[in-house]
Amino acid sequence: MVKGITRQVVVVKTPDPELFDEAIFLVRSEAVGKGGVSDEDVLREAKQAASRYIAGKVRGGRRGPVSPGQLLCLLAGGAAVGFLWLLCAIF
């Protein structure tokens, strides 16, 4: 037997069924009780959140190109690990 509080959910069907079937959002109980928040507002926000997720994850998977500083840190870390490995191999 499952006990608990009944929650409202919003189910958003995906425009690209190759990746996901649907997104399920649990609506906060405080949001439902507030005045001025309609069902249409909740549905619109859920669709926007799903669209932002798809745009960020599917198209490229990262937020932008690697900056020169990030590349420098990556190369410096690799060089440090290689140097330490070389020291351990010699001594």
Report on the architecture of this protein.
β1 and β2 (22-27) form a beta hairpin. This protein has 2 domains: 1-60; 64-91. Strands 1-2 form a two-stranded antiparallel ribbon. It starts with 7 loop residues before the first strand and ends with a helix. With 91 residues, the chain is α+β, with helices and mostly antiparallel strands. The chain is 53% helix and 13% strand. The mean pLDDT is 78. The protein is built from 3 helices and 2 strands, in the order ββααα. The longest helix has 23 residues, at 68-90.
Tell me the Rg in angstroms.
24 Å
C-alpha termini separation? 64 Å
Q: Specify the overall morphology.
A: elongated
Tell me the strand percentage band.
5-15%
Query: Please, what is the average pLDDT?
Result: 78
Return the structural class. alpha+beta
Quick summary of this structure?
Helix content is 53%, strand content 13%.
